[in-house]
Amino acid sequence: TIMERRLWKGITVPSMWITALMGGHLLGVMKAWSMPWFHIKALGLVALFAYHHKCGKIRLELEEGACQWTSKQLRAFSS
């Protein structure tokens, strides 16, 4: 639990914010919204944020001992 929390707060959450900030920078500086590839990239970013949010919920459930997921389901979800 301690290592999960350290990984989450030390690597995962900061990486999410760096990704969001760099995407915002790309959008602002390059006026990328008018470029077709940026829409695909933005959709991927939304999917990553949704995955990040779900992983956070699962981590909290594991910490509380209330997780209903089996080990096989967790391995399938993370791959």
Briefly characterize the structure.
The chain is mainly α and 79 residues long. The chain contains 3 helices and no strands.
Q: Write down the overall mean pLDDT.
A: 86
SSE order in H/E notation?
A: HHH
Low-confidence parts: none
Structural class comes to: mainly alpha
Helical coverage, percent range: over 70%
Which shape, going by the Cα principal axes? elongated
What is the radius of gyration computed over CA atoms, rounded to a whole number of angstroms? 16 Å
Counting DSSP H or I runs of 4 or more residues, the number of helices is 3
Distance between the termini: 21 Å
Range of strand content = under 5%
Write structural notes for this entry.
The chain has 79 residues and is mostly helical. Helices cover 84% and strands 0% of the residues. The chain contains three helices and no strands. The chain is elongated, with a radius of gyration of 16 Å. It starts with a helix and ends with a helix.
